[in-house]
Specification:
By secondary structure, the chain is mainly alpha-helical. Helix content is about 60%, strand content about 5%.
Amino acid sequence: MPGIESLLGALPLFCLLLTIFCLRKTAAHPFDALMRGSLVWAFALVMVSNILSALTLLSFPWLLIYWIVYSAFFALRLYREKPARLVWPKPDGHMRVLACIALLTLITATLYPPTTVDTMTYHLPKVMHWQQNNSLEHYYTSILRQTGLSPFAELVVFHSFVLSGTDALANLAQWSAFIGIICVAAATAALLGAGKTGQTLAALFFATLPMGIAQASSTQTDLVVGFWLMCMAARFLIWKSEASTSNAAYFGMAVGMAVLTKGTGYIISFPFVIAFAVFSMKQYRLLLSKAILSGVIALSIFLPHAYKNYIAYDNPFIGSDWGKYTSIIPRPTVRSFIATAVAHIISNFPIPFMQHDIDQAYEALLTVLDIDPKDPVIFSYGPVSERRKLFSTHESQAQNPVHLILFIWCVSGIGIRHYASANRYRWLLLASLTLFCLFLSWNYWTLRYQPPLFALAAPLIGFALEKSCGEKTRRVFCILLVLYCIPVLSGNWSRPLLPPACGANPFSVWTQTREQLYFSERPERSFRERYLAAADILAKERAESIGLVIGEDSWEYPLWALLRARVSVMPRIRHVIPPETDDASPVVPPAFAPQYLFVLERRLAWETRDEITEDPRYAKRLWIAWEKNPDEIKAPLRLFKRVNGRYLRIF
């Protein structure tokens, strides 16, 4: 029954809400309960998942039992304690705007299936392999990002997917984090000393962030890590005023969740962790043991994944060979810092009539710095002038010019230097920003890494607007923030709410089926039709095992999604090293001789050039280009079937 399955998929979210309500009795602020409840819920999810994974019991029955027991425990506690009623603020114009943004992004998240490129490549494929293996252990894959990158956001999706059997709720992890950041930004502004106006402005600042809105309906992970970093910042401020054991534990949970969600969590959280340690050492007799507890909790969250990485790649943090996906500058300098910092700034300003002048000025700056505009270490995917967009509502490239102006004004310290608490927070934010620009190379999707920084700046900006600006100035900024977010709110390039008649992307829920929408980031008809045809063949022939021979950036998830809709029992699907001859078995994994080979953007050793392309006129040009850059040239999808010990092409 699909209805019951969907309800089961929402069980983890229901348990999260139940946890928050249980903790509201001791909450000084409604959003304090949200922070603590989210941290407890996430910590329990990670611990139980690791235990079940070690026992190879990470499957539907055990997950269902866990969430039923979890909900029963907190429901009983809620019934017995009868927590005090919280007084929520009365709705005003700002609240209505926030509610409208939350509702529209929720509608978008539920209407659309996962569509993000990274989702098709590694976010959701890893979820499929976890479900198939009943374990979080690393597996052989040609896409190292499936196993090496921090997995928390996908782990949340995994629980929902296993319980529901569908990806209908996959986008809600990011949406929930988006709402969480808005709430925690307001709470953090209050901790800095802001009144109601400053708290509302902090929430509005992030709620209208174009990149935040674009990602709120996706399966990216930047908002999830942003939420944990916001919780970390808030818990640090609370720790300074009330250095209790529980607050130390919450800080450790927040740091652990941030680094378990995305690599940027290491960089951005580092100044706060150092500040936490320094503050604890100043009163080491009273606080050292609590600080150690915080560190132990953070390590307990991340160490299982780090250990798997170490066993698989000899590196606890990332895979040992990431090729073109490496975003870290290994030996940063002051010159590289200036180059990337300025690139981040100009990428956020879509000014068509000044585009050429800006590009020329930036290249002149690089000449002064003696930096090559095509340096692959600093500019991963080519020169800034060739890759940045004029204006975009895409979830990887949406610009935030109004927000960046406020960000720069705020971190400059104008108007808030006389407020000690806010000024100290500003220095921590500046330290995180410096590390971000120092170690992360620039590429055309770097804009999507920035929401955590804007989230951390939101409380400070709300505070500064309240303390330093008059009512008219605040109103002007609010109007600009709201107006600039409308295009991405209604016309998100990947998931538009507006119909094509209004100028939105024609590849939308208005014109396409759910299966077709999986390919919205690669809408070329030939690719989609070949994928659908291949899935039909595998379903018709009742394939029992499929070996994946795909590239490091190939779209794997559509195969899982399409087969799931066509068969009652899913075949065994595993990545393999392709055989050297058509009568040999794939090398990895051991004892796995797949009935079919699914080949995409790779060439089997025995294939000739004219066997790949359907049009011999393009065969030579295709293969010459592919052999020079095999990850960029998209070779047609093929299927091979094992017949009498040999692999024969059937599609």
